[in-house]
TrEMBL record:
This is 2-methylcitrate dehydratase. Residues 15-252 form the MmgE/PrpD N-terminal domain. Pfam families: MmgE_PrpD_C (PF19305), MmgE_PrpD_N (PF03972). GO terms for molecular function: lyase activity. Residues 281-453 form the MmgE/PrpD C-terminal domain.
Amino acid sequence: MNARNDMQQAQTVSQRLASFSTHLQLSDVPQSVRERAKHLILDSIGLAYATLKLPYATSTLAAMQELGSGEATVFGHTQKLALRDAMLLNGLLIHSLDFDDTHARGVIHSTASAFPVAFNLAERENASGADLLTAYLCAMEVSTRVGSAAKSGFHHAGFHPTGLVGAFGCALGAARLLGLPIEAAQHAQGIVLSMASGNLEFLQDGAWTKRLHPGWAAVAGATSATLAKHGYIGPGAAYEGRFGLYALYMKTPLEAGDIDIATAGLGETWEIDGVALKPIPACHFTHASSDAAIALHRAHGLQADDIERVIVRVPGPTIPIVCEPVAPKQRPSNSYDAQFSIPYIVATGLLRGRFTLDDLEAEALADETVRAVAARVTHQADQDSTFPRHYTGEVIVHTRDGRMLTHRESINRGSSDRPLTNEDIVAKFFDNAQRNVSRDAAERICEAVLSLDTRPARTLAQALA
């Protein structure tokens, strides 16, 4: 082993990630990665606009306004909020529909926290759009890598990586914008260890709390970096320490070498290339099964009376999230339950040949025909799955006339191995944004995002207000 590798091994994960984020320049990032990053941001903004008038968005806005005012921009609103309150709400707006991007290995919705912290801090600091984009990339690379090292372990322990791990990425994204030196950026990660949070209890009753997690990660990251800027000291081994992230938030310890996933290939391999975009507004774990059901609808024109029973094969680790407990999954009581329900999503695909935001409305959820088919859906663990690289899905329909109809999706649409194109992302942005703004306004926003690296950050803020 050479001297450089010896030195890297001696460093903590916090030190290595701090060094990366402190030294990163936008010119170091391949042009294709920069373009993809801007399109991921565009996707997130479209989702924020689609969410503006929904109850959890208006409720959160009212709560933040009651807590105080400020000068920070909230997507789609003329009202300004205090800096951290704006981050909280902007994260909620991006993530609430569960239609936002996901890093497959890290199982984390990374843009929903990375963009609010970079955007609102860059606006306050009057930073360039290039600096905003660089901070966003720092946050994305860190959160996705830290999540990947856990190999879904956070989920198994009941924690939501989007909030939990996103906080660490946000701490370093904020540190980059604040110009912190390496030592202070290391402290920021130690500090945020005491703030990072997010649990999966919302899965039991469809509570709204998941929607807060990415915005809270942004708040925690900005707070930690600011404390570090003023000399506050955090633990040095935030990740691998005796009471560090991986020791406390997983049921089983990391295997030998897993910790290195968090830093392997920093600045050479770009995890943003592994970020998947959602073609349908539901948990990524359901997408392949949804597409399989839609394919069967289109091929066979199935009606409810044709279907005797349905078997859906999904990756084993996803079963507790999208298939169990069976009763509420077969009869979701609200939109969030529906987004995590293999029975409802597959039944909708088989009968309607689609799954869109309209299928999350109360009228759609109350459709007794869809409910009847959902009650006939059971699940099995997919023994041939390539999870977590791919979120596979197979739908097997047994018809009343004795046929067995099967369709399998081995690679989920939108994944890094079957990605949506940048053109697809632009089209998705317009579909979502135009639910609440005009085409002209959406075009101004799109132009501001895609030229972000050539303009001041406040130019984008003006377009979004």
